[in-house]
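User: Let's play a game. I give you a shape written as tokens, and you guess the letters that built it. Ready? Here's round one.
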């Protein structure tokens, strides 16, 4: 299932899924890293959608450093090679498209390409940002510039926090209004 599915899963139905169904249904909430959802399954039952989020985020935060870095590296760059090649997940396409990252002016694309290269060289993974928390492309650029000044450990923590915020938005769309309608 894609988190862009127009038919969100009711929370009670999520609780009833077996491990395979849980991973299939929620696999898209964490970019190309199904191990997070697999580990979160072990923490069920969940009292709420927020408890599902906390279980997923806990799996990310408690993972060994090499798995955290692999998770960060699994994400696409903003308007990067995956976007150009058309190989991003539907979730990333929708998120990047909202702020116009898939149709940048030449000047904005060049600025972003330069920032992406500087960031990846400094930290070893792509710049990760929960785009749903930004109202404009200018806000994203400001965040990018500011975070380039972080030390590597600080930025890894920030990037993991951003992954969790991306995951929160995807989870809300996957289970949207399910608790209210249950």
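Assistant: Ready! My guess for every position:
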């Amino acid at each position: 299932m894609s988190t862009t599915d127009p038919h969100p899963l009711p929370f009670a139905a999520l609780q009833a899924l077996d491990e395979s169904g849980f991973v299939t249904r929620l696999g898209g909430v964490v970019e190309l890293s199904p191990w997070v959802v697999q580990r979160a399954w072990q923490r069920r039952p969940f009292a709420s959608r927020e408890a599902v989020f906390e279980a997923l985020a806990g799996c990310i935060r408690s993972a060994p450093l090499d798995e955290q870095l692999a998770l960060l590296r699994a994400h696409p760059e903003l308007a990067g090679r995956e976007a150009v090649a058309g190989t991003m997940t539907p979730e990333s396409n929708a998120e990047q498209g909202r702020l116009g990252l898939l149709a940048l002016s030449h000047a904005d694309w060049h600025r972003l390409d330069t920032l992406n290269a500087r960031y990846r060289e400094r930290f070893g993974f792509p710049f990760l940002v929960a785009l749903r928390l930004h109202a404009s492309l200018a806000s994203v650029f400001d965040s990018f510039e500011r975070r380039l000044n972080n030390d590597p450990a600080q930025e890894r923590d920030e990037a993991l926090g951003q992954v969790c915020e991306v995951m929160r938005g995807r989870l809300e769309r996957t289970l949207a209004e399910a608790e209210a309608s249950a």
